Amino acid sequence: MTPFLLYIARAGLYLGLFYAFYLLVMRRTTFFGLNRLLLLAGSYLCLLLPVIRLRTVTAAGIAQEVSMVGVAWERAVTSPKPFPWPEILLALYVCGAACSLGLYLVSARKVNGLIRRGKKTVLEDCTLVLLENNVRSFSWGRTVVMSRQDLEQNPAIFTHERMHVHYRHTLDLLLFSPIQLLFWWNPLVWIIREELRLLHEYQADEGVLQKGIDATQYQLLLVRKAVGEQRFSLASGFQHAKLKNRIAMMLKPTTAGWMRWSYLALIPVLATFMFACNPKKTAETPVPAEESEALESLPAKAIKLSAEELTGAVPFAMVGVKPSFNGGSANEFSQWVNSQLKYPQTAINDKVQGRIIMSFTVDTDGSVKDVKVLRGIRQDLDEMALKVVTASPKWEPGRNAEGEAVPVTMVFPVIFQLR
Question: Does the pLDDT at position 172 exceed 80?
Answer without folding.
Answer: yes
